[in-house]
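ligand=flavin mononucleotide
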Amino acid sequence: MSKKLLLKDAHIEGIRTYDVYRRQGGYEAVEKALKLTPDEITEEVKTSGLRGRGGAGFPTGLKWSFLAKPEGVPRYLVVNADESEPGTFKDRYLMEFIPHLLIEGMIISSFAMGANTSYIYIRGEYAWIPDILEQAIDEARAAGFLGKNILGTGYDLEIYVHRGAGAYICGEETALLESLEGKRGNPRLKPPFPAVKGLWACPTVVNNVETIAAVVPIINIGGAEYAKIGVGRSTGTKLISACGNINKPGVYEIDMTITVEEFIYSDEYCGGIPNGKRLKACIPGGSSVPIVPANLLLRTINGEPRYMNYESLADGGFATGTMMGSGGFIVLDEDQSVIKHTMSLAHFYAHESCGQCTPCREGTPWMFKILKKIESGMGTMEDIDLLWDVQRKIEGNTICPLGDAAAWPVASAIRHFRDEFEWYINNPAASSGTYGLGNYADPIPIAAKAEQ
Ligand SMILES: Cc1cc2nc3c(=O)[nH]c(=O)nc-3n(C[C@H](O)[C@H](O)[C@H](O)COP(=O)(O)O)c2cc1C
């Protein structure tokens, strides 16, 4: 049974309300934290080994310690609740069902940063959740945990909820800050990083919803205890939103010591693949991370079991591994077409590119067009090489990582499923057929293909 820190009370009726949350021990972490100094809280978070849950996995305590503290200049905490990555819906679950966990985490984190104003930037499509968050904020204020002179400590904090307008790029932290300032959500050049010059050019920390929620159990049990959960640099628990061809789609809290095989097939988690179908491939960290075929998903290139943690999922680099990303776990069974799937993602990235950088603006629709050509049975073998070339020219050549996010699904699809591309090209009627599992049984040729 996996240890639960974030979702342990999620099943309790009324947990969305202050009264029930408080009865379950809610806000005790705030009471504890306000007796510590801000630096002591940051140290606890550092000791916990918590890594950002928004996708990049950057150590949270370290990020906080970069925050500039010039005299007389306000500092901000901005919670990134944009969650627009296809396949990722874990933050939605947290905010919708346990909103006070996020508010409690924000109070502690804001205090640690010396921020008196904090924001939740939430994607516009989560239209019903701002009301839930605002209700939780009002309840917390009525109980003395927000507003002026919190618990008589002299510390003041206000939290505001800001609705986005439906742009994936606004999840990128600097585009988010531009949007929050009322401008078009175009990513900024870095440096300066937000920790030095963020919202309104003031020092700012941008953290994911789950990251900030995790601060509550860290304070409750202590950073050292938190670090004992999990393995290596993958400490604590992680929320995974699982979808696709599985019997039990949903949001799961895992402790990062379980294998990918257990996660997919055990009844505690995804419950296996419907109708006894075979596993073909998986995108384990949200749409931006490389797709991996079943054999490389369940085992690393050395034949070791692959685990649901940052290091194991990335084992072998992009040639044979993938990434934990934002924890959006998308499962494809033997009937799914990798070409159609990749084409659909390419369409998404072409639509969501902000257009600021030429390789991304021009390259993302170009990739979609080539994939559409192949999918509709009009592709040539040269198109595969062209597609490879276009994605390579996007990766690493843009201001923000949306370009990389668009390139990796295409690169990994070609790397691991070249046979399927060729089948589409050789079978003009392929778009109405099913290629099936394909030729991915032996990991060695796949690794060799990665060197192309
Ligand atoms: C195109 C793009 C979209 C992103 N969307 C999100 C998002 O929806 N939520 C999120 O927390 N981070 C998102 N990120 C990552 C953020 O830029 C940033 O790294 C993150 O919010 C930092 O929080 P963390 O350290 O707690 O993970 C996105 C990045 C890119 C490039």
